[in-house]
Sequence to fold (226 residues):
Amino acid sequence: MLSLVYKDFLIQKGGKSAVYMLLMPVLSAFAVSSGSDSIFIILPYIAAAYIYIVYANALDDKYQTDRAFAAMPVSRGELVAAKFISIGIYLLLFNIIRSVSIVVMSFFIAEIRIEDVFSADLLIQFIFFPAVYFSIYFPLYFSMGYHKSRWANYIAMIAVLGIYTIVMKLCPELTRKTPDSFQDAIGILTGLHRYIINTVMPVLSGLMLLAAFRFSLSRYRQREFI
Fold:
């Protein structure tokens, strides 16, 4: 299992994806320093994850690793789980790089408030929106393969942007109140306390990923590699 996870990381260093993956956390940090809306902080996060996983999947397709693994004593469950685990580890590394970049910037940019950067709302969004993205992408990828599922990235990205935009626009239009975060907008619209929302969102993220994993595994087991 760990060797499968390591494989996705190892193949990144030979291409441009490694450069992009290092730049994206810094771009996210710059978005924080400029006081941008949280979606502009999260978008580089999603984009970096997209670059990472698509590059790994493209090389898997190029060298037909699915066929090679089909002839080896590696279960389909391990292959599917490795993809989920590797993207989780990568997103954790992204947040570490982003956090270090922000701390460094705070020495030069007085407007950066560390307590805002590491707020519960923002950290939970960093869990929720990638969960939405990969809960859409991975089931389609494991069902159809790399080439047939390339469009799935666009659907997943539209879903992330759509959820955020709809909630943030509906709130002021329906209530005439300006939310200060995605969770604040949901709270205003539903009347739920922010603590409840911040509890439900990670739980919902976990359920989405669990459902995506089970569906991905079920579909992947049905595929044949000749």
In short: The radius of gyration is 19 Å. The chain has a mean pLDDT of 83.
